[in-house]
Design brief:
The protein is mainly alpha-helical and 515 residues long. It is built from 21 helices and two strands. The mean pLDDT is 80.
């Protein structure tokens, strides 16, 4: 007998499937020229080489970028047709899915958020955040069934874990919010934007209703925005996410069964033999796909890193050595340009394979969740104790030792202060990139036995990886290449493509008149 949260999950997905089947698509409204599409696709690939993102967030980020350009730069609230055209040209959306109904739905989504912005009379960060929410809502309209599966699985996961997470000194309400955030992070690898929109729906439940009171929503907008910002930025969710890693794997299996079997998912989940076969097949294919995916992500990250390193070397390191040191030292410069891309390439080639003990552990855990509602109680250390100061002191000593040793080696190689700073800066970013890419594949492992050398290497890498995470979060919005692409190149380029598309349609109509 399936537990209540799982039965609710299946019912919600069945409802979403029925809604999708009952909605008939309208007529296709776009003309996509192959040459223009290739140019748009090339631009998008270049754009995301210099602005590295996880693959599953790229389309949503593209939608947000288009919306911000239309709303803030071009001052146009009607984005539906333009957005569909650009998504189809950039191969984010099949042109057959672009209909008048879809364009109208997109315009209504944008209209709702613009009404809130107008009613609240906000600008700046909150207005940009609302446009980001609109992008996520549009993305969900493009893939309604996928979003329904994801949201329903998160809700089932949360209901299963609620009451089993404890953090000393933190209120139950705050723990539950952070548990909810941790589930989004762990199960779906949600970025800040996707998680923020999920919290928006949680704090503004009337948003999906048929009628909206924009003044009422505007009145509580500042408070809601503050709560979302605080919840997303709380590091407690990451601590909880590590604790629920095993349960996340189990719900990945459940989500995959529901996603692939639809209405017959209940039969598969109620049959231990069929569920076990599905789990074995899923884990085998998933790990192979993850290895291929991390290779692709690694290559993208290497290209991004190589381009930025070259630019920094030309703009900063070479002038410093030439004007202040009187000569260019080619060995440190070459190491600074080539070492980090090669290191990242080496770290993201392959992450090993699943063994049978891991598969059996996953199967046992899935059975416990589905049939018994068996959940571990997790406890997170989040308060000061007598040992906290000692641990912090030891960690500080570890940081000083690691970075001190690196600086010592670089000085032996005749690195100057600027080249040392750049080397450490990019080493931290590379370590964090590699950690993120490898983590996506290794998250399927429950049984992880580490040897002594691996354990020592992991401990020594912690200060570097944590520094890279801080740098990535701090400087994520400061990317001169992205600013140039978005504010100088993109607007005229997209307008040229749009004009070219319309001109091609015009020529085709004139040709047809001659028949």
């Amino acid at each position: 007998m399936l537990t209540e949260p799982i039965r609710e999950l299946i019912a919600k997905v069945e409802t979403a499937e029925n809604a999708k089947e009952s909605s008939f698509p309208g007529d296709q409204i776009l003309e996509v020229n192959k040459i223009i599409a290739k140019a748009a696709t090339f631009y998008e690939k270049v754009r995301y080489l210099i602005d590295y993102r996880e693959e599953h967030t790229i389309r949503r980020a593209a939608i947000e970028r288009i919306l911000k350009r239309r709303v803030f730069i071009e001052q146009s609230p009607h984005a539906g047709m333009t957005l569909l055209q650009e998504l189809a040209d950039g191969q984010y959306l099949e042109k057959e899915k672009a209909t008048e109904e879809l364009a109208g739905d997109i315009d209504r989504i944008v209209w709702k958020f613009l009404n809130v912005i107008e009613a609240a009379k906000v600008n700046g960060a909150i207005a940009r955040r609302l446009v980001s929410f609109a992008a996520t809502e549009i993305d969900s309209r493009l893939s309604p069934l996928q979003y329904a599966v994801d949201e329903s699985t998160v809700e089932a996961f949360y209901k299963t874990m609620k009451g089993h997470a404890h953090v000393h000194g933190v209120s139950e309400e705050e723990v539950n919010i952070q548990l909810y955030c941790a589930i989004w992070r762990s199960l779906l690898s949600a970025d800040n934007e996707r998680l923020s929109y999920a919290l928006w729906l949680l704090y503004v439940p009337e948003w999906r209703g048929p009628e909206l009171d924009f003044r009422l929503i505007a009145g509580k907008l500042a408070g809601v925005a503050s709560r979302i910002h605080s919840a997303v930025g709380n590091s407690l969710q990451w601590q909880i996410a590590q604790k629920i890693k095993n349960e996340s794997i189990y719900f990945h299996i459940i989500r995959d069964v529901v996603q692939h079997h639809g209405a017959s998912a209940e039969h598969v989940l109620n049959s231990p033999a069929e569920l076990d076969d599905h789990t074995r097949e899923f884990l085998g294919k998933k790990y192979e796909r993850e290895n291929e995916r991390i290779k692709s992500s690694g290559i993208r990250a290497v290209v991004y890193l190589f381009l930025t390193k070259m630019a920094v070397a030309i703009a900063v390191e070479v002038p410093y050595e030439f004007f202040f040191l009187g000569a260019i030292h080619y060995m440190p410069l070459s190491i600074n340009i080539l070492f980090h891309p090669f290191l990242l390439f080496a770290l993201t080639r392959r992450v090993g394979a699943l063994d049978e003990s891991n598969t059996e552990a996953v199967i046992s855990g899935v059975h416990g969740i589905l049939y018994e509602g068996r959940v571990r109680t997790i406890r997170v250390r989040n308060t000061y104790t007598r040992l906290t100061f000692a641990f912090a002191t030891l960690y500080l000593a570890l940081v000083l030792f690691v970075f001190g040793a690196l600086i010592g080696v670089l000085e032996l190689l005749n690195f100057n202060p600027i080249s040392i700073a750049l080397f450490l800066f990019f080493l931290a970013l590379v370590s964090y990139f590699a950690f993120r890419i490898r983590y996506q594949a290794r998250r399927w492992k429950i049984v992880q036995d580490q040897g002594a050398l691996v354990l020592v290497a992991s401990v020594l890498a912690i200060p570097v990886v944590r520094t890279g995470r801080w740098l990535s979060q701090t400087f994520s919005s400061i990317n001169i290449f992205v600013l140039i692409m978005d504010f100088i190149i993109e607007t005229p380029f997209k307008r040229l493509l749009n004009f070219s598309n319309q001109f091609m349609v015009y020529l085709r109509e004139k040709a047809e008149e001659m028949r």
